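Structure tokens please, single chain.
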Amino acid sequence: MKNINIAIDGPAGAGKSTIAKMVSKKLGFIYVDTGALYRTIALFITENNIPDEDIEKSLPKADVSLRFIDGAQRVFLGDRDVSDVIRTPEISMAASRTSAIPAVRAYLFDTQQSIARSNNVIMDGRDIGTVVLPDADVKIFLTASAEERANRRYKELAEKPDCPSYQEILDDIIKRDYQDMHRETAPLKQAEDAVLVDTTNLDLEGSANEIIRIITEKTGCDK
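Here you go.
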């Protein structure tokens, strides 16, 4: 029986990872956070001070892998679990730039497709439905207004020391949106056959339920 592949694309801060995790758990699918892979490459490049001209030849040394531990995805750089380290604003911005490098995308492309061939997956990112899984059974473009995405991020960071202001977070989101949509390689865009889901006025549970409804309607798969 053919594995079911679900592609979820959308801008930074739209809640793709959190919602995709909820949906995958309810449906019993494997969740693949492709953004974590790009963030890990960005961490590798940043920590090793690798100049742009040396990135391609340095990639084989990165040793990036996804491991599923107790049903949860963890990302490793060598033997080091970097799942939490890669979530800083600095690495987020670096990942946006790094993910535009063709050699980096090619390096991670085979890993993503291999996982999808072998499992029922929900994979989220910026170009899953357009490039990585163009034949996905269901494609969803998940978005929310920049202001709402900034508000969610601000609430998430508010308890942490050195929390950026709401305006700084909003400016970063707008800047990243522009970078992601205008990059030369695999820019962020909605696939022609993707279903648009705007979560501006939905909570996490409501967003997850809407996506499950779409998946069930299109595949017959039920939770």
